[in-house]
Amino acid sequence: MRIPFVFVARSCKAVHRLQQSPFFSPISALSRHQRISVLRQTSTHPCKDDRSYYITTPIFYVNASPHLGHLYSAVIADCFHRYKLLQGFDSKFATGTDEHGLKIQQAADTAGKDPLTFCTDVSERFKHLFSRCNVSYTDYIRTTEQRHREAVEHFWSVLWNKGFIYKGSYEGWYSTQDESFLTPSQVGDALDSSGKEIKVDWMKEENYMFRLSAFRPQLLDWLRGNPQAIQPERFYQAVLQWLQEDLPDLSVSRQRSRLQWGIPVPGDAEQTIYVWLDALVNYLTVAGYPDKHKQWWNVAHHIVGKDILKFHAIYWPSFLLGAGLPLPQTIHVHSHWTVGGKKMSKSLGNVVDPLERSQMFTTDGMRYFLLRQGVPDSDCDYTDDKAIKLLNAELADSLGGLLNRCTAPALNPAQVYPSFCPQSFPNQIGGRAVVEDYHMLDAVKHLSALVEQHYETMHVYKALEAISACVRQTNGFVHRHAPWKLDRRDSKDRRWLDTIIHISLECLRIYGTLLQPVVPEISNKLLSRLGVQPGERSWADVNFLPRYQGMDCPFEGRALGSDSGVLFSRLERQNVDQQKPKKTKKAAKVK
Ligand code: ME8
After folding, report:
1. How do the domains of the chain map onto residue ranges?
2. Spacing, Cα 62 to ligand 1 middle (Å)
3. Which CATH number fits domain 52-334: 3.40.50.300, 3.40.50.150, 3.40.50.620, 3.30.450.150?
4. Cα–Cα distance, 112 to 204 (Å, whole number)
5. Taking residues 287-302, what's their average pLDDT?
6. 276 CB less than 6 Å from ligand 1?
7. Average per-residue pLDDT in the chain?
8. Is the pLDDT of residue 31 over 60?
9. The pLDDT of residue 65 is above 70
10. Which of 76, 238, 255, 288 could form a disulfide with 293 if both were Cys (CB 3.0 to 4.6 A apart)?
11. What's the distance, Cα to Cα, between the start and end of the chain in Å?
C-alpha cells in the first residue's frame, strides 16, 4: 500500500496547485482498512530494539525561572530513566528548553536583553536546578541550537514535499501566553487552566497551514488500536472526545514582521515557523533526526503536563504521520500542582521555588514528596506542612528508624549481615514466627512485581505507598518480637535474634533497591550501610530472602558498611517557617 501523496511539490505555488489537483487524495478519503495499513507503515516498529528506551520531558519555556511544576515533570522522567537502567535497558533521557516564539521575544525585550543571552541565562537556571536535584538527563536540548534548526528545517521540508503544508491565511484568536490558537468557545471561557484571564489577540495573516483536518481518521484509528497510548485513561478519553469535534487546519507559521525570534520557513524568509512545530521536533532532534533517529525514535515515551496534551496527542502525532514517522509509544500525562487551589504558574505569581525547597527538605526529600504525593490523574495542592509531615513519618521515622534499629551495635554487635535460621523461621508454622510474619514475607516477596507495575504506568505514588506499607509491616515484625529483649547468651535466642535481623535487613535491601529511581542518595546510603555493592543493586538482584527458600544468601556473614549516619534527619517546622517565601504582590491579588 502506497501513501497517496506521491506528488512532490517544490514551491508554495506548487502546493497551492496541489490542493486543486485531482491527484490529491486526503488520507481521510481512504477506507478504514487502507488507513490502518498506512498507519501500520508509520506507527509500528519493525526494527524496535526492545532493550532501548527513550523518555522525554516537555522542553520548558525560558520566559521565567523554573518552578516546582517543572521539577515535577523532570523528576518523573528521571524516575522512569533510572528504573529502566536498573532493569538493564539502554535508556536515553532528554529534557531542555523551548526558546523561540513571541512570548520569549517579549520577555527578552522586557528584560532589556538580546534574546539569545536572555535564553542562555534562564536555560542555565533549569540546568542548575536539574543537577542539584539529581535529574540525570543524558541529553539537554535548546531549540536555539544549530542541530535543532537543521532537524526542524528538514522536518518542514518533508511535510511540505508531501503536500501537508500549504500557503493560506489564518484569521482568529491567538494567546501569546499559551502560544496557541484558540477556538471561539475557548475565548468565551475567558480563563485559562491556572484561573487567569486569557489575553488574546485577533490575528489575521497570510501564512502556512498544516492539513491537520486530514488526520482525524488516522488519529482515531491509532488511539482505538492503542488504548495504552495515552495514560492515564481519563486523558485518553479526553483526546477521543476532542477528536469528535471539528479539527480545523493549523497555522504553522507567523509573519516575520511580527515574530523574528524563531526559525525562518525554508525558502520563505518572510515567515517564521510556529513555535509549537519547532518545539515538538526537539524530541526527534535528540533522537538523531534526520539520519540516525531509528534506534531511539522507535521507543519514544513522552511525559507531559495536562495543559499541553492537545499539542502532544493531536498536533504531534499528525505531524509525525504526515512525515511518515512512527508515533510515540506512550504519552504519560500528569496533573498539576496547585497552591491554594490555583495552578502554580509563573503568570499567577504563586510559584514554589524548587531550589529553596530542596535545600530545606534535601534533594531526596523533595523528590520523594513530589512523587509520593503527586497523582497523575488529579491536581495536588502544595503546602510545606504536608511535605514535612510526610517526610518525617515515612523517611525519617519509618524507614530510617528501621535501619537504625536493625544495625544498632546493641542488637548487632558484630556489625554483620547475620545468619538466617530455618528452624526459627520454618516454611510452615512451628518455629518462633507467627502468622503475621508470614503475611509480611509474602507482601515483600511480591513487592517488586507490584512496584514494577506501578512504575510502568507512572503511578509512582502507588509504588511508594506499597513500599511504605511494607516498611510499616517490617517495623511491626521487629516490634512484635522485640529482639532487644532476647538473650544473646542463649543459643536459641541468639539464632532467633539473628534471624529477625537477617529478615529485616533483607526487607531493607529490597526497599533500598526499589527506591533507587525515586531517592537515589538515600538508597545509596541505605544499601551501602547493608554492605550491598553497586553491582548488586539491579532489578535482577532483588531476589528476596533466598535462605527461606533453602538457597544461599550472598550477604549472610558480610560486614555492614561503616557509614552509620542518619538516613534522613527529621525536619523541624521552625526552620521551614523562617524560610517561608514572601507573598508576591501578584499572588496576593489572586482571588
Ligand atoms: O508548555 N504542575 O512549556 P512550559 C505540574 N514549552 N507541572 C507543571 C506545572 C504545574 N503547576 N506547571 C508547569 C511549555 N508544569 C512548552 C512545552 S514541549 C514540546 C513544549 C510542567 O514552561 C508540565 O509538564 O509552560 C507542563 O506541561 C510543562 O511544565 C509546561 O512548561
Report:
1. 52-334, 396-559
2. 11
3. 3.40.50.620
4. 29
5. 97
6. no
7. 88
8. no
9. yes
10. 288
11. 58
* Positive/negative CA dihedral, 174, 176, 180, 185: negative
- Amino acid identity, residue 75? V
Q: Do domains 52-334 and 396-559 have the same CATH topology?
A: no
Q: Is 430 left (phi over 0), alpha (psi -120 to 50) or beta?
A: left
- 308 CA to middle of ligand 1, Å? 7
Q: Which residue is closest in CA terms to ligand 1's atom 27? A: 305
CATH code at 396-559: 1.10.730.10
Which set of grid coordinates corresponds to residue 47?
Answer: 526494527
Inform me whether the pLDDT recorded for 37 exceeds 60. Answer: no
DSSP notation for 498-523:
HHHHHHHHHHHHHHHHHHTTT-HHHH
Cα–ligand 1 centroid distance for 234 (angstroms): 19
| Atom nearest to 374 CA in ligand 1 | 5
SS3 of 138, please?
coil
240-247 contacts, C-beta under 8 A, 24 or more apart: 242/310, 242/314, 243/216, 243/219, 243/314, 247/212, 247/213, 247/215, 247/216, 247/314
Which element (helix H / strand E) includes 218? helix 216-225
Instruction: Out of 6-10, 208-212, 307-311, pick the least confident.
Output: 6-10
pTM of the model: 0.88
Q: What is the pLDDT of residue 199?
A: 77
60 lines ligand 1 (CB under 6 A): yes
The number of residues making up the chain comes to 591
Beta carbons within 10 angstroms of residue 31's beta carbon = 9
What CA–CA distance (Å, rounded) separates 500 from 406?
9
- pLDDT given at position 203: 82
* DSSP element (H, E) containing 225: helix 216-225
